[in-house]
Amino acid sequence: MANVSSQDLGNEPIGKLLIRQAVPASIGILVMSLNILVDTIFVGNWIGSTAIAAINVVLPVSFFIAALGMAIGIGGSSIISRALGANNAVKALKTFGNQLTLTLLFTVTFAVFGLYFVDTLIPAFGGKGNIFGPAKVYYEIILYGVPILGFVMMGNNVIRAEGKPKFAMYAMLIPSVGNLVLDYIFINILDYGMAGAAWATTGSYVVAFLFIFWYFLSDNSELKINLSHFKLEKSIVSEIASLGFVTLARQAVVSVTFLLVNNALFNFGGETSVTAYAIVGRMMMFVLFPVFGITQGFIPIAGFNYGAEKYQRVKESIYTAIKYATVLGTVVFIGLMFFPETITKWFTSDPDVIRITPNNMRWAFAAVPILALQLIGAAYFQAVGKALPALLLTLTRQAIFFIPLMYILPVYFGELGIWIAFPVSDVLSTLVTGYFLKREINKTLADII
User: Fold this and answer.
1) What angle is formed at CA 392 by the lines to CA 388 and CA 396, rounded to 5 degrees?
2) Separation CA 271–CA 275 (nearest Å)
3) Which of 172, 438, 439, 442 has its CA 20 to 30 A from that of 112?
4) Whole-angstrom Cα distance, residue 365 to residue 420?
5) In this predicted model, what pLDDT tens digit does every residue of 23-70 receive, in sequence order?
6) Where would I find the H helices in 86-192?
7) Burial of 238 (0-12, 13-18, 19+ CB in 10 A)
8) What's the CA gap between 222 and 90, in Å, rounded?
9) At a CB cut-off of 8 Å and minimum separation 6, what does 247 contact?
């Protein structure tokens, strides 16, 4: 592999650079999403459709705790990208050391609390009736590995901040492939059921951690820290917290949304509707991988060039990222509108689930072509260290628009109203983000070349 320096983020042509950053990120997200997708297919076919609903119930809790690592990773990576762009290696090293300390403290603490309140949290997140038993089995095993996942999510974002997207991709590929292999062994061959699915996932976290640990010890990383860097520094912790809170808030809202939608759909259609939402949720993670890849590739480019005061390159990266992501989002939209029945049958043979899921899937993805603007716009403010607008724009899609709409629209449309809330909230949040991004470009970047 050719030697790649973080300085390339400030020198290569934006289009070429974005592709070089986004393609590995997209491949990593694709394989990780395929892992989740195939894992769900395995569980649905080898254990049963109730097991799909059980995993969907557990996801909000495990996602939130894992999101602590992601939040610390993305918040600190914004600082690291800008510090490297400004040739401030000392700040970059201190930031990375502080990230490691914070990740250990928070993920372990929340995992312990999550295990202690297991019997309260699972029913609260929709794990009722026949779903409770398998959900509890899956939940308890998954939480043992969540602190390790926190380190993986944090480390992956730091690798990307260094301008090493291929290594970040490998960090996502290795556990994804490992999880599928372990799924086959634990579920199909050894017949461990839900426990097998959970141990396969936890084992994949360990594999990913070992790879990332090796990366930072190798010559591939520019961040060679010592014990002094682990000591928490107030100014750095504060900056990590303000920027990382954007990611944490987004993931927290995702968890809350899962909770609310699971419970609302259970009240309307029982386990069948919850299973339909589980399938749609998996597809949201899977089919949007190229859009998320562009967004992840965009963040270190914008952050580095903003830190280097190359503002024209920042503006060019915004326009290029939106253009690429919109084209890819449109391709995804066309596929989902034409083949939802086929997709549903991948997951289950349950006739009731097959009957209701395709139409709901079409509603949930109806506004995908315009979603790129919302994602890139919110990511820009986080990349350049503007925490408040990043937070507000991140929350518009689900917290500000979707959650109120999922209660208002069912009054008029019944269960369909919950599904209609997805595209309506996407449109409204995109309009708001577009307004603030345009104002930022006109005021901050327009006159600086």
Assistant:
1) 170
2) 6
3) 172
4) 10
5) 877 776 677 666 666 777 777 777 877 777 777 777 777 777 777 787
6) 89-116, 118-124, 132-161, 165-183
7) exposed
8) 12
9) 67, 70, 71, 74, 75, 382, 394
**pTM flag (> 0.85):** no
User: In the numeric block, which tokens belong to residue 399?
Assistant: 């917290």
What is the residue type of 66? A
Q: Are 383 and 80 in contact (CB under 8 A)?
A: no
pLDDT score at 32:
66
pLDDT in tens, 204-249: 889 989 999 999 999 888 888 888 888 999 999 998 888 888 777 8
Distant-in-sequence, close-in-space partners of 217: CB < 8 Å, separation ≥ 6: none
Please say whether the beta carbons of 232 and 51 come within 8 A: no
Distance, C-alpha 181 to centroid of its chain = 23
Q: 348-387 as b/e, with b when 16 or more CB fall inside 10 Å?
A: bebebbbebbbebbbbbbbbbbbbbbbbbbbbbbbbbbbb
**C-alpha–C-alpha distance, residues 276 and 260, integer Å:** 15
Encoded tokens for 394: 């991140």
- Closest residue by Cα to residue 115 from 133, 141, 134, 135: 141
Kindly state the tokens that stand for 313.
């390159």
CA distance 264 to 258: 10
* Residue pLDDT, tens place only, 304-322: 888 888 888 888 999 999 9
Half-sphere exposure of 379 (CA within 13 A, CB side): 28
Residue type, 45: N
Say which amino acid occupies 446.
Answer: A
Higher pLDDT, 9 or 426: 426
The owner of tokens 């709409």 is 405
Closest CA to 373 of 423, 319, 416, 334: 319
Nearest to 259 by CA among 241, 285, 281, 237: 281
H-type alpha helices, 288-339:
289-307, 311-338
The pLDDT of residue 4 is 46
How far apart CA 337 and CA 306 sit, in angstroms, is 39
The pLDDT of residue 129 is 79
